[in-house]
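Course exercise 7: structure representation. Students receive a sequence record and must write out the corresponding structure in token form. The form below is the worked example handed out in class, using (spotted green pufferfish) hypothetical protein (431 residues). Read each field label carefully; the graders check that inputs and outputs are placed in the correct fields and that the protein name is recorded exactly as given.

STUDENT ID: A-19
EXERCISE PROTEIN: (spotted green pufferfish) hypothetical protein
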Amino acid sequence: MEDAEASPADSRLNFLCDYVLKTLKLKQDKWDKLLSSQDHRQVLQDFLDRAENRTLVLSVSAAGLLQPCAAFRAPGTKMVYFLKPSGAALCPGSMQERLVCGELGPAVLDQFSAVVQEIVVPLLSNGRNQSKWMQALSQDLGCHVHALWTNVFVVSGQVQGKTLLAPPAGPERIEQASAEIDQRVVDKSIIDSLEAAVIEWGHQIQRVLEKDSAEVLEGEKPTPQTELLFWNNRCRDLECIHSQLKSPKVEKMMNVLEAAESSYFPAFDNMKQRVFAALEEARDIRTYLKPLQPFFEDLENVEFPSVKAQIRPLMHMMCLVWANSKYYNSPARIIVLLQDTCNLLIHQVRSSMPALYIVPEEVLRRDVSESLSKVQTCLEILELFKTVYEERRANLNQYQKNSPSVKPWDFSPLFVFSGLNQFMDRVKTIK
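STUDENT ANSWER:
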């Protein structure tokens, strides 16, 4: 009796085994190791026998072992999944018919995007599959399919840190419209599709253009690396947008809209110009901020007493950025960088690498003279930063070359040192 019940179970497990080993390209010993664990075997058995267990996912751990799970987990490695649409126990003879099997790679969204673009969209958009449908149904489905693909396309770009502009519905019709320009017989539905794409692109691009590095200061204590990273990412994203807007297909879109005297053509042209201007700004700022990178890295990686030697060279470099950059020489920009530098100094006081420098409990436990010396050194370095700032501020004209005079730092120092002053007051209390 027991043998009769075990046989079907073994047969069902063999089906899972064959699929998993072939898909993940594993050897039999990996499956045998999986079955040797009572907990893992129970997960498999519950999926086969219990109607409510409708999902089984198997993946390879960092140790190279197969691991079963009753739900999808965060992607990281290639996975194999089995789904029971009917939600019933499985029989040996109907495994293939009653299971949905598949694999997921580490980049699930990219895989899903490829499925939508290469399978779902062509299948549902094929006119031969719609021959018996009403026109209204066909058009409505086409709109939903394009919306799905657009969303997947845009989100996949966001995951990569890029702004991807989804092509308009029926991209192949752009070629047709481009060829019909001279004949003035462009299908109005094509114009509508192009204008809808321009509107959506405008929203996406506007969100990018409105971003500002000052926003990251709200409620946070960013360091200069945050500022440098912001401009690196912004430049890369704008380059991506610019390359898309300069592509041959988009150029043909513009030609069609211009020939059709579309009211969206001027907006489209203006959008391109704004992207180019923002890209020029981002490239300029990235170029001039890049030499600051090693200075900030040194500031982060030295013992705090050694920071003293870094302050004057760092401030000198900031003044060079101010004097030479076409776009970074505005109070809003330099204040952000100086505030970030103050945050970095505060961070280094609290936890210089590799050992802690000033921790209240540590100060109270140590010898009084030693603790007092550390507190005093801390205050001297922070005060030096403020002093050097005032010196450079008063002598910015030294950075003038053959260009007009260097703009002064005529903003209040409180915009820069408000947080640092509060921190220094607390340190003085410890002293």
